Each structure stands twice: as C-alpha cells, then as structure tokens.
Amino acid sequence: MAEHLGLHTAGDLLHHYPRRYAERGELTRLADLPLDEHVTVVAQVAKAAMKTFNQGRGVRLEVVVTDGSGALTLVFFGRGAYAREKELIPGRRGMFAGKVSVFNRTRQLLHPDYELLDGDSTAAAAEEFAGRLLPIYPACKQFQSWKLAKAAGTLLDLFEADGWQGLVDPLPPALREGRGLAELADAFRQVHRPRAKADIEQARARLKWDEAFVLQVALARRRHADGQLPAVARKPVAGGLLDAFDARLPFTLTEGQRKVSAEIFDDLATEHPMHRLLQGEVGSGKTMVALRAMLGVVDAGGQAAMLAPTEVLAQQHHRSITEMMGDLAEGGMLGGSDLGTKVVLLTGSMGAAARRQALLDLVTGEAGIVVGTHALIEDKVQFHDLGLVVVDEQHRFGVEQRDALRSKGKQPPHLLVMTATPIPRTVAMTVFGDLETSVLDQLPAGRSPIATHVVPARDKPHFLARAWERVREEVAAGHQAYVVCPRIGDEEDQPKKAAGDDPDPEKRPPLAVLDIAGQLGGGPLAGLRVAVLHGRMQPEPKDEVMRRFAAGELDVLVATTVIEVGVNVPNSTAMVIMDADRFGVSQLHQLRGRVGRGSAPGLCLLVSEAPEGSPARARLAAVAGTLDGFELSRIDLEQRREGDVLGQAQSGVRSSLRMLAVIDDEEVIGAAREEASAVVAADPELTGLPELRTALDALLDKERESFLDKG
User: Fold this and answer.
1) What does the pLDDT look like over 208-238, one tens digit per residue?
2) Partners of 23 in beta bridges
C-alpha cells in the first residue's frame, strides 16, 4: 500500500475514500439477464470443467449455473481457477455477482464475486448480499479495490473495538453542531461501510467540511501573519511621475481599471505588505494597472520589479513599458524628462557590460523600474529600496522564486500577482486564499471581438484548405497572422520511438513548427513572408523575429506557445492553432487573446483531427462557444481536476483534496473560509483548539508548510 498508493498510516487508509459504490443489483432471474449490466443471481452449480487454451499454456474454469429459469456460464482464468474448482462443485448453491457479457452466443460472467449459501441460508441472506453497496476504491494493479475494502474493514473493526480512541476531530464542536454535521467516527463508518445511499451523502458532507476548514484555517493564519509584518507605506505624490504618465495617456482607463487601481493604491498606503492577486480577461489591461502601481511606488521613493516567466515576455514588457512611458522612462538621460526614472531590463542572456550597468542602476536606485526573468532573483542582484514586486503569470512561477525576490527588500515589499488565466472564485479562494483578489472583467474600448471556429481536418479536409485561404485574405487586407504548433520539430524535440514501433496514425507525434513552416512556405502560403519563432532560438534572432513581426515586415509567424502571453501586435488578426486538441482550454483562450488587439476583428481557427463526439472535440467546441475566460477556466478545471491545491503542482498531480472538488463545492469552501477567519481572529495560535492544530500539522507536512510560508 505504501509503495504503490502512498498509504503509510492507519490515518492514510481511513482517508483513502471509495471513488464510487457498486450496487450488486436486485436479484435477477437467469432468464431475464440484461447484457452489460451488473447483476446478482442466486443459482445452483450444474457442472464445472477445467479447459486449456493457447497450446496448453493457459487454463480456464467454466462453471454452468442454473436457477430453473435459465443457465449462465461463469468463467475464471489463471491459477486462481484451481481454488475455485474445489469450491464450485455441482450441487452447491451460491450468489454470483458480476457484469453480463456474451461469448460464442452464450451469456457469461467473467471472474464474478460470489458467496456460497450453505445449508439453511435464507432468502434474507441473499437479499442482504445483493443490496449491499460495494465500495470501489482508487486502486492499482498491485493492490486491488477489494483488498483495500478488506483492509479498511479490518481497520474499522479495530477502531470500533477500541472505542475510536485517539481519533482527532479537527472541527470545533460548536461549528460541527451549528452546521448539523455528523461525528467524525460516524462519517468514517458511513463512507467505508454504507448501509444506504443516505449514509454516503452524510459522510461526504462531513468529510468535505474537514478538508475545506483545515485548508482555510491554514490560509487564514497566513493572512493573519502577513498582516503583522511591517512594510513601508508607499503613497503616490501629487504632481509626480504617475500624474505625468496619466496626463499623456491617449485613452481613458476603463471603470474596472480605475476601481482596481484604487484598491491597489489603498493597499500600498498601509504599513503592512500588500498581497493581491490581479486577475483578468486576456487583454483587459492588467499591465497598465500594474505599471501605474509601479509608478506610484517610484513616486514614493521606492523601486518596483516586474518578474516575467520567459525572456520573450520580459523583453516584450520592457519594450511596451518604455514605449508607453516615452521620455519618462529616460530619467537622468539626455532628453529624458525631469520627472522620469530609468527602466532597465535584466535577463540571463544579456551581455556582460549591459548586465553590469543594469545591476549598478539597481543598487544605486538610478533605475526605479526593472523588468526581468528569474535572473532578478540571483544573489548578485541588489536593490537600493525595493518597494513593490509584480509577478506576471502566476501559474508559471514557483512560490520559491516569488519568495527569493521578496527577501531582496529591507522590509518585505508589497506583492502584486497578475494572472491572465482567469481563475474561478472558489479556486482563487483555495489556491490563492492568502491573497486579496481584484478582478478586471471588462475589455478596454476599441478591442475587437474574436470569432473562433473548429476546423475538423480529418473529417473535412477542404475546411483546412479554406483556413489557409482565410489567412491569405487577411494578409491581402494588410493584416498579419500566427500559426501555432505544439512542438518545435528539432532533434531534441522528437518523441522517442521504441524499436519495432508501428507508426500508428492515431498516435502520430504532434505537428511541429519547423515542419509546418516549410510546408506552408512551399504550399498554401507560398509567396507570403513566413518566419518561425520558438523557445530554443538564441535570444538575438528571437528578438529580431519579434521586432520584424511587430514592425509589419513579416506576414505569418509560425510559433510554439512562446507567443502565449504578453505578445502584443495589434495588426495581427488571424491565428491558426494546429493540433488544437493537444492544448488545454485555458491555453487556447490565452493564445486566442493575441489576435483582435486592434480595431480589426480577430479570427481564431482550431485545427484538429479528433473525431466528432470525442472529449477533445467537446473541449474545442467549448472554447469556440464562449469568450468568457472565467467560464472556460471552470470547464478546464472540471475536466482536469484541481491538481494538488497546496503542493507545487498546479494540476493533474494527485490532489491533497480527497473529498472536496473545488468547482462543485463552492458553498462549502466559502462558508469554511468565513468560519476559519473567525476562529483565527479569535485565537491566532489555536491554543484552545489542540485537535485543529494536530490536523493542521498533518495537512501541512514540512514541504507544504514551507510552501505556504513562502506565499
């Protein structure tokens, strides 16, 4: 159990809940057996025969049972068949449960569960056997579900005999009674050995509360501890850099941008570090809000750092910030504004001289704003007075990195985390429960709608030909286009092939940038100016391609997802995403946000060979059906599950939530957050709640405790 399922203690096994419950089904007459359904029959063994197959290398036991209304064959393969042969002898009666299938026009049960009824076993025993709910556990090949059921049953018996000594209930009694929740021992009994479906419901309601409440207490204690830290209040100065910047803006801020900016400036003016999550739709103007916050901090005598996940994105941010600021970004330089400050870029691939100068500007305070990648976190980087850290794209940035940058301030700097993947409210409450949340949900004026269509390349190849025609039409109208592929296509990137592999068309490798660019340039897009962009290019050529595309010197950019975030070329109106089913829902939404950034409408074509009716096509239809990122992120989560809400992994890995589903249990999480905040406000150290402390220690093992502590 420990090796294959990660279950090391009695507590681990108690918390390893059944995934679902099988009903053996009403007792069925053999004459009425339905195909493909789980049934339970009471019948008598008529005959049993051991047979061999595969030239004597395999054995199977065939047992024919009858109940007077009809006959049924039970089949057992493998060595276990010999033990069954000794038990299932003609004349014995038993109950047999399994799924009905047909082989050689004969109905059969393959490896059925059975219980033999000896002597005077009554009809009541048969009813009880048939009516019992069978827990089906998350299991593995080495340790099947029925073994887990047996182990859990043994454990329950031991606890019962001991009067549930040593069971720690994390919920304060007043909370449990006030919410009408079951006792913990009852919940364990009901979840592992339910007598009726109502038992399962009661147990789930109670166990979900445990998970939600303990998690929210951990987050509430973080918020409380953060609130005790000192920070330098950063109040913008009238007539300073921020006012000068606002006066030059060629557009007015949206209502949402003004509201969110006000929340941020209120936080910056306090003597505790701000911890705020700024989330918004693709293109809702988060960078503008973050830049105004940075300028406000510079006005107040501090420095601001913006952390981006990739070099392409850091360069892009640096370029767009300096363009928006104009001579305000050239403080202390010839022709720079008197109110201005220096905006420097710091990435790992910069030349030594440029890097030395940037480091010097930071330590002397000459540079008020720095944009960079993880290179900002290295020990060599020193700030004069770091006041604000803006982290772009939370889901790609580890907590350790955020923490390392925060430790660069003399006192903890204020923290603003931006994410362009909108997060459903419950997930924000759970994953980022230590951050206050601001949401930008309206797009700036002048942004165009994006039409999205699915192109079924396998069923309708002429649709794909039409897609390339549409790209040519956009270019002919003076616009530009992206073509996105899942893979680069250089040697390092090739999927490994095992010796003797048959090329299975279903499992072909994802389409690659280098291949597609060649095919398009010599085929459907011949004559257009096509270039490639991917993450393994050297920084100079990469930046050169981006610059040429932004300047309109290229028509089509064939790229990997390096263009997913932050790339801003208003003249690009079309995007074709190849093998779109290989991307996640949120990723497709992000990519699509790169077009329609100007006044011309955007077009996004999702090319896929996935068959109609498949889950992959359903995902693509969802993306094509709505431009609401919050709605899409819900769909994405429902399909992928939450991942480990506390751990490093953001999705797909075993979740620390066993019973709680973040999307479905919105009400429980919201209520638990309120209860947790009240408990922590009244007793931050939880001195009066030793059981809750114990449960917290169990939830936050060393790794997660430090993970939470790092913010």
Assistant:
1) 999 899 988 988 888 888 788 888 999 988 8
2) 133
Q: 451 pairs with which residues across the strands?
A: 603
Residue type, 661: A
Q: How many angstroms separate the CA atoms of 148 and 156, rounded?
A: 12
Closest CA to 321 of 360, 286, 274: 286
Enter the tokens of residue 564.
Answer: 């997913």
Backbone angles phi, psi at 626, to 5 degrees: -150, 150
Here the tokens at position 562 are: 């390096």
Euclidean distance between the first and the last CA atom of the chain, given in angstroms as a whole number: 33
Sign of CA dihedral 29, 33, 37, 41: positive
Q: What pLDDT does 578 receive? A: 95
CB 623 within 8 A of CB 592: yes
Q: Which two tokens stand for residue 681?
A: 């406000």
**Which residues have C-beta within 8 Å of that of residue 624, sequence separation ≥ 6?**
452, 453, 454, 606
Do 195 and 131 meet the contact criterion of CB atoms below 8 Å apart?
Answer: no
Cα–Cα distance, 347 to 323 (Å, whole number): 19
Confidence (pLDDT) at 122 = 59
d(CA 512, CA 579): 10
Question: Both tokens of residue 651?
Answer: 């999705």
Own/partner long-range contacts of 506-512 (Cβ < 8 Å, ≥24 apart):
510/485, 510/486, 510/579, 510/582, 511/485, 511/486, 511/487, 511/578, 511/579, 512/485, 512/486, 512/487, 512/488
**Spatial distance between the Cα atoms of 126 and 27, rounded to a whole number of angstroms:** 8
Question: What is the DSSP track for 117-142?
Answer: E-TT--HHHHHHHHHPEEEE---BTT
Rounded distance, CA 695 to CA 707, Å?
A: 17
* CA-based radius of gyration for the chain: 31
- Tell me the pairing of strands 386-392 and 303-307: parallel
Q: How many Å apart are CA 601 and CA 597, to the nearest integer?
A: 8
User: Residue with structure tokens 């987050």?
Assistant: 219
pTM, entire model: 0.68
What token pair was written down for 10? 């009695």
What pLDDT is attached to residue 95?
Answer: 78
Rounded distance between C-alpha atoms, residue 572 and residue 405, angstroms: 35
The pair of three-digit structure tokens given for residue 184, joined into one six-digit string: 């913990």
Find out whether 432 and 239 touch, Cβ atoms under 8 Å. Answer: no
Residue spans of the chain under pLDDT 70? 22, 24-27, 118-131, 141, 144, 146, 332-336, 393-403, 405, 425-432, 434, 444-446, 491-507, 564-567, 639-657, 700-711
CA dist., res. 26 & res. 322, Å (int): 73
Angstrom distance (rounded) from CA 427 to CA 662: 6
Secondary structure class of 677 (helix, strand, coil): helix
Q: Which amino acid is at 494?
A: Q
569: tokens are: 């070329």
- Give the Cβ contact number of residue 525 at 10 Å: 21
The answer to whether 673 touches 429, Cβ cutoff 8 Å, is yes
